[in-house]
Amino acid sequence: MNGRPAFFETLRDKAVQRWDQLERDPELAGPWHQLFKQVQSPRHVLSELLQNADDAGATEASVDITDGCFLFSHNGEDFTEEHFASLCRFGYSNKRALHTIGFRGIGFKSTFSLGDTVELDTPSLSIAFDRRRFTEPRWIERRQSVSERTLIRVPIRDELRQREIEKNLQEWLASPVSLLFFKHIRRMRIGSRDVHWRSLGPGPVPATERMALHDSPDAAFLVARSEAEAFPEEALAEIRQERLLSDNQEAGFPPCKIEIVLGAKGRLYVVLPTGVETSLPFACNAPFIQDPARLKIKDPETSPTNRWLLERVGKLAASVMLRWLDCPEASVAERSNAYGLFPDVNRSDNSLEGVCAATIEGSFEKALGEVPFLITSSGELKPSAGCIILPQPLLDIWPADQAARLFDDAGRPPLSSCVTEADQQKLIHWGVVEKIDKPHVLQVLQSTHLPKPETWGHLLKLWAYVAPELTGYRADVDRQRVRIVPAQGKDVLYAACEVIRLGEKRLLQSEEDWEFLAVHLLVLNPNWPRFLAEQRRHAEELNDRSLKGKVAAALAVLRAIEMEGASDVSEVIEQVAGEFFSQQGISIAKCVQLTQIAAKLGATVGDAFRFATRDRHLRKVSSVVLFDRDGTLEAFFEQAWCNAHFLHTDYKTNYASCTHEEWLAWVTSGRAGLLGFAPLVGTKNDIYGRAKIEAELRRRGVSGAPSYSYVTNHFRVEDWDFEEIHWRWWSALAKEDPGIWGRIFDRILGQPEASWVHAKGTRVSQVATTRKTRSISNESLLAEWILRLRELPCLRDTRGFYRKPAELLRRTPETESLMDVEPFIHSLLDNEATRPLLKLLGVREVPTGPDRLLDCLRTLAMSDHPPVHEVEKWYRRLDQLTDACSTTDLADIKAAFRDEKIVLSEGAGWTNAAGVFLSSDEEAMPGTAVVRAGVRDLMLWRKIGIADRPTADLAIQWLLGLPSGEVLSQDDARRVRALLPRHPRRIWSECQHWLNLSGAWMSVDTLSYSLSMQSLVAWKHLNEDIKQRTADLQPLSAEVSAALPFCGLPHLAGRIEERLHSTVRISAGAERWPWLNQLGVELRRIELEDTSEQDRIRKLAADLADTIWQTAPGLEIIPYIDGTPAGMPRRAEAVWLSGVLYVEDRPLSKLARAVAQELGRAFRRQDLADAIKLCFDRPPAFVTEYLEENFKLGPQEVTAVPIAAGQSVRSEPSTQNSDDGPDSPAANRPADDEADQDDGEGTVIHLEEPDNGAESDTEGADIPQDPESSHAPLHRPPLIPKPAKLSIIERFARTKGYQRDGTERFFHADGSWISKAHDARFPWERRTAGGDLVCYYWPKEHCLELQALQIEADIWGLLDHSPDNYSLVLSDAQGEPVEVSGTRLRAMLDGREIKLYPASYRLVIDHDHKQ
């Protein structure tokens, strides 16, 4: 059909007229436009169009969005004039069948919600509607060829509307339930996807059908349809009102059907889904009257039509469920699915959804009536409350009927197990069935011996079922009383407390003993744990998770009920004892057998157990039963008491069921309950009178006042003590054996702590008139038995003597310091277990004070050489004591160390706290006395005020404390000599004291002379008054001693005049020695920078040039000061007086050193002393050559050496002395030498003299020295003249890159230097460019690899004490200088590369001690 239908123009004209009328009358047009806006919803477009297509008889439809246009088509009938007229009207419909969405003819108009123009193309029409006049059609050209399908095309206005319609299409794809409610449409295509339902066949009852989507055949839905039923009158009236029909208009509305879909959500449909979604288990479709917005339906409370339809839905659901349950052809499982229709909604929900669901459920309930609808496991139907629901695990364990009888008192059959859990909950919520829950099951299991399941597998299910409640952290049941345990030979289950489990290993070897126990026991069936072990292994092999879980749960239950292992033997014995001792006529032999079995098993006896005593009575352990292990316990008690309380002797006569060792172990463990001594018993004593009770409190150690709560004078003392019969017996024994108290206490300690710990205190209370009591003291009160033992010698000390407790000390950190001083309790009695009891008895835990320890130190301080380990031990004890001592005790300790010399320092003897330090500081105080290294880490020293290290202020403070005018001790003198060169001016000015030659600390006002290294003379032979008045400046450097205030004292050397003793025998034959006179001649030419010094040397040289050599046997000289003898004559090897050099009659090899020293003393220059030593007995030519090479000389003078009458000229020295050979008397004559007397050390190590200016602190090294000193023989040098060899210190300096700068300094390019030091022990020092000390050097031309080296003790002490600051400069095998630091020496000593030996000892008479 290509032309326009005849009715088109007619209907279009009517529409035009209507719109012209509306446009002329805005009030008439207003409702139209308002209603038109209400239907503008994109989500309703597809639903409206599908409804129209279904009304047109379409069987399939399609929808798509292409190029921004919404396209909908179907294969229904073409428009007739009547149908087309409905499109051209608004608010009116020609539909009469109520199986529709609405009645107002506005569904098609919803398409305008997508766009402004809607095109319609059918076989007869090609028209469009515009939004402005949405009912006025206009003819358009066809976009496609004539087709049999109806096509609706709407250009979508914007993206928002397109997204909304696309969302609606996706909802249809997800839930196309509405297709089930159309009359004709069963297939729909949305885009490229087809959606259609297919039938799976009829349902379980008539008028039902199983349906499924074509792509989900397994997800079946059950559709149930009712019979058609006419609307009631009140519904028809509502419908007429909704359709705006008058009573005289046509009202032929046919009967309607309703449908429900089981499996779909509980939404209400009017063919198409509404917005009402309930909690019903099925969807409902009926011709509900919708609200104006067509989102939901009208409230059934105000809509009789909707209420009637909803009630029909409930009746339909009940009818289908009842018929389905009563279908004999179906299985019980299939019939059980009928409960899926059972509603369970919240009837108190007042929302529209809640009201609709409640209306349906109420109708459903009314339809059920009294009809049986509960299906049992056998398929029977029972009425409401006629069934019970049993947990599925119980039905898997026992048959259903048996399980029902076991757990339901009424014996009701169980609901079919095929009913799903969700459906069960609905029935329970309705109250039509009762569920047997797990708490009820556990209650039954605790109260009833249920029959044992048929197989172990069924029992495994039972254990797995109850496992969560029995193994949880907070179990609400008594695990021991749940009867699930299979017993050997029994058909019912028992509780764990009724059954014991025997171990796989038989602990009792005797069958007779096993039979004795088995008579009285219920034993766990051993096959049950074996089955669990097999199932666990089987589950592991098959990796069966379900079985693993069950076995794990069962094993957890086994642990929870404490049957994982063998039962506690104590429970076994207690169970047997309860039955055994309830019998009559029990023999002692059987009692012994049971007791020995208990000992064998190590059981703990309980209240049911009995022991036979010597008087043949059976007694509980609470009745006091003692076991006399070795037969010595009986001596502590009277015989009658022993018979009533000592174990029968048959118990240890024959050990048949256990060994003797097992019996003793059982008894001593305490598990037997047998005592090893009499127990403490509680007593109650009443005391009347407050004075008496206060006296009693003081006796028990209470210091505070009692608190009285009542007015009464009645008091009660609840005490603990041994029975009085025992005290009387023990007192009698003590008269003959005082040691009995110690043995009694040993017995008390031998008991477990629990035997006395509860009885250590006493409670004293006041009794009111109402008999109420209240304690009168909060302090701890001692029990009576403790008070008695306090006064008895019951404790052994470390020497085995018994003492009263208060006389002893416990070994604690506080008392550790008093070990070996105070009496201590024996170590066997002092342990953690006995400590509380010892404290109660009054054994002291803190020391009484430091006096005993200080006395030990005072005693040791009386010895100059005390045992060091013993001294250090007492220091450590004092250190321990100070950790917890009182302030007073610490003050006493400080005072003792301050006032007394009881500190033993490292190598410096005894001193007080002010004279010792924890570490040394050679800069501030050389030779510092330090605390011994072995105890230097003790906190004691800091607590008593000993400083960490010395400072100048501390040194001055110490010097101020020295006694004035008294000779210092060796240690103090050594320290003073070390301090003097460090702080000379401060000491002189602040202390106003100085050390004299006698070693006394003298006021500077008493000093008249000084003795320095630059003006050194022999002085030990001087008179004591001279020594007393001479200041010892030897430790000072030349610069210091030459400056104020020291230069103010005249030099002793300048005041002494040496004279020959009158008894000296002068032998004839004085002679001149060429080398000697030549030396004087050449030195007369010496040139020095200091002209006064030059003149002095030249004058001496002139005297030397005229000096003659005179041999004087027995040479002695006497010192004179101011013409008065100032000392005793002394032997001398060489004396230069008045142009004569007097020498002893000795070989030249022995005189060389003495001559060089005597002449060098006069010249007072080291370089000249070295020259004299080297030129001794040399040819004159060599003397001249040597001096010219090493000294600056003036022009040579031609002079003749005068020879006086009687003088001879000594010939040139030869290589051999014919007069003094090895066998001559002079060579073999013993040296008449005495060892030097050192002022500071009592014992020293002798050393060889260092070369090249190594100075000594005695009376000279290579400068003038005491002639009494012993000297090593000096071998004559070779006669062949050769250039002088550089000193070893200079050679060493050159190897380090230093150049000579004067006679006593070497400088380096980096600014550092090596120069002479003030320290006489290490004469050279090396400093940085900034003046910081690097190292002290002690040079000596000596090869340690070729010959042993002797050094003095103080030199070694410095090397050992400060190895980084002191070094030796020696030569190697090739004569090259090498530095050997103190660090290297110590490493060599530790590595045993060198050994240290004492070289010599010096004996010194202590004149003070002798007096």
UniProtKB/TrEMBL annotation:
<feature type="compositionally biased region" description="Polar residues">
    <location>
        <begin position="1208"/>
        <end position="1219"/>
    </location>
</feature>
<protein>
    <submittedName>
        <fullName>DNA mismatch repair enzyme (Predicted ATPase)</fullName>
    </submittedName>
</protein>
<dbReference type="InterPro" id="IPR036890">
    <property type="entry name" value="HATPase_C_sf"/>
</dbReference>
<feature type="compositionally biased region" description="Acidic residues">
    <location>
        <begin position="1250"/>
        <end position="1260"/>
    </location>
</feature>
<feature type="region of interest" description="Disordered">
    <location>
        <begin position="1206"/>
        <end position="1280"/>
    </location>
</feature>
<dbReference type="InterPro" id="IPR052957">
    <property type="entry name" value="Auxin_embryo_med"/>
</dbReference>
